[in-house]
Amino acid sequence: MDITLTPLTETDIELVRTWRNSPEVAQYMYTSEPITAEQQKAWFDRIQQDSSSRYWLIEYNDKKIGLASLTGISQTLSSCYWAFYLGDTSIRGGGLGAKIEFNVLEYVFNELKLNKLRCEVITFNDKVISMHEKFGFRREAYYRQHVKKDGAWQDVVGLALLKPEWEAYRTIMRVKIYGS
Fold first, then answer.
1. Helix H or strand E encompassing 117
2. Distances (CA, A) of 14 to 19, 33, 67
3. N or C: which end of the chain has fewer CB within 10 A?
4. Within 10 A of 160 (CB to CB), how many other CB atoms are there?
5. pLDDT above 90 for 141
6. Is there a contact between 163 and 114 (Cβ–Cβ < 8 Å)?
7. How far is the C-alpha of 40 from the C-alpha of 70, rounded, in Å?
8. How far apart are CA 23 and CA 83, in angstroms?
9. Which of these, 88, 5, 9, lies nearest to 44 by C-alpha position?
10. Against a cut of 0.85, is the pTM above it?
């Protein structure tokens, strides 16, 4: 597989901050305000102490292209949330998002052995909602006026995928994405 998830290290947090502050990424996040180097360092220090999260650099053909994360990992609930973004906008398309999603799903259900993976997507990001649904995610929630972006309230869709649903979709998705 040409997608690799590598644990985030302090040496890469400035690259991640540059991506996160770009308008192409910030438009899909809950907050759009620029992040300072000090805020980024404090965030990194915080997540290093948080055993309920995982953050990875996404690498494609040995090039750093984005960030993926799991948060709220709970053995009690056997679930977590996930998110990702591509910071390198020159390589969007071509099924990269699907490859990233496949890798994260494999980790959540086979390594962490959780039963449920959740995510939240602002409703105007219909391409990402559609991609999640192709993997078997179902809409479980609709959060009205959940986040304020550029002075306007935005609705958010809550989606989730259960382990048995992933097991039913896994082989189909592997063939669609990787051809085998």
1. strand 116-122
2. 9, 16, 12
3. C
4. 18
5. yes
6. yes
7. 18
8. 17
9. 9
10. yes
Strands 79-86 and 116-122: parallel
Instruction: Give the integer Cα–Cα distance in Å for 136 and 168.
Output: 9
* Residue 100, token pair as written in the block: 């990233």
Would you state the structure tokens that stand for residue 28, as one six-digit string? 């899909």
The encoded tokens of residue 14 equal 């400035």
What amino acid occupies position 125? N
For residue range 34-45, list pLDDT tens digits in order: 999 999 999 999
Asked if 105 and 80 touch (Cβ cutoff 8 Å), the reply is no
C-beta of residue 164 within 8 angstroms of C-beta of residue 174 = no
Summarised one tens digit per residue, pLDDT across range 90-99 is 776 678 999 9
Q: Residue 139: phi, psi to the nearest 5?
A: -75, 125
